Amino acid sequence: MMTKTRYLVLALAIVISLHYILSFSHEGYGRATSLETLRNQWKGGNLAQESEGKIHVWHEPPYKTPVPEKYYLQPNTTITRRANAVIVMLARNGDLNGIVQSMTQLEAKFNTKFGYPYVFLNEEPFTEEFKSGVTALTKNKIEFGLIPHDHWYQPDWIDEPKAAASRQDMVDHDVIYGWSVPYRNMCRFNSGFFYRHELLQKYRYYWRVEPDVKFFCTLDYDPFLFMQDEKKKYGFTISLPEYERTIPTLWAAVKEFIAENPDLISPDNAMGFLSDDGGESYNNCHFWSNFEIADLDLWRGEAYTKFFAHLDAKGGFYYERWGDAPVHSIGAALFARKDQIHFFDDIGYRHVPFQHCPQAPAHGRGKCECDITDNFDREGWSCLNRYDRIFT
């Protein structure tokens, strides 16, 4: 009996020794078997809770798995299913030429086949020239909306002398759009109001498209149905750091919100994309929001509604120059599961000065019209590596 006991003790000691050796010599093993990870597994943190109740441990980013064939349009077939989705374009009348470029490519590469409607929004009424110019580009439904005054213009409660002093400081330091109030209006509108517009209330998903962008690849699957069926909340193509001088107090406001509303934060969030020290500081990474395919209910939900109200009350859209890109990115990272944030690796896209050009095999499948070496994904400023690391 004593001999069996000694063997069991010896075997247990060997197993424990191997565990500690692997923990120190292999980072991935150590991370996967740490007490924190096991605790998170019990609570649901850092793990994706699948619909059937099973827990999924990630070993690579979800986009590494190709989009299933069922979402692709097969030859000689008729589309029988669409998502409740819309293409949203914020534009001024003077943007017509840029809109023609963006819309012509989007129609040719995607929407002529799939037939999704458009909503155009402007703080001033669209001219007949603008309306006829874009209507000629598609057979799909188009609606033109006027942005409510209070959703666009600087609120009366903003201390204008304080805001002006901040703008002057940014001009003195050569910050892009440093003096522009209309740019700040746009950032605040996109952060907290576009999804409230009456023309968008009947939709669940949207694709944000801007003037003067390029789409390089033929898209033969429906990204809206992919988002819907796979329960994705936010999709992006380019990620990079925000200009720190434009958001000096943003993270302090975010931390304050988290401390006051811990119950609103997703237990399996993407904080690791935003912060390199567990949330103590912001690494400035964000998803470049001039391209978004997302679930409108993410912004309509209780968490983001309270989050935007908290930020708006700080006045940072005008006292600083908080952009909708970091605000949306922080919101998505905190209020969605990390696996619900999707990198559209197969959608070629350019907004000056950066572009995402899909790599092989997506480049060939999409017949992408871009130089495969001109790709921002792994450049020094790209935050894609941080996104990847939250899954490994």
Automatic annotation (TrEMBL):
<feature type="active site" description="Nucleophile">
    <location>
        <position position="292"/>
    </location>
</feature>
<dbReference type="InterPro" id="IPR002685">
    <property type="entry name" value="Glyco_trans_15"/>
</dbReference>
<dbReference type="GO" id="GO:0006487">
    <property type="term" value="P:protein N-linked glycosylation"/>
</dbReference>
<protein>
    <submittedName>
        <fullName>Glycosyltransferase family 15 protein</fullName>
    </submittedName>
</protein>
<dbReference type="GO" id="GO:0016020">
    <property type="term" value="C:membrane"/>
</dbReference>
<comment type="similarity">
    <text>Belongs to the glycosyltransferase 15 family.</text>
</comment>
<dbReference type="Pfam" id="PF01793">
    <property type="entry name" value="Glyco_transf_15"/>
</dbReference>
<dbReference type="InterPro" id="IPR029044">
    <property type="entry name" value="Nucleotide-diphossugar_trans"/>
</dbReference>
<dbReference type="GO" id="GO:0000026">
    <property type="term" value="F:alpha-1,2-mannosyltransferase activity"/>
</dbReference>
<dbReference type="GO" id="GO:0000032">
    <property type="term" value="P:cell wall mannoprotein biosynthetic process"/>
</dbReference>
<keyword id="KW-0808">Transferase</keyword>
<dbReference type="GO" id="GO:0005794">
    <property type="term" value="C:Golgi apparatus"/>
</dbReference>
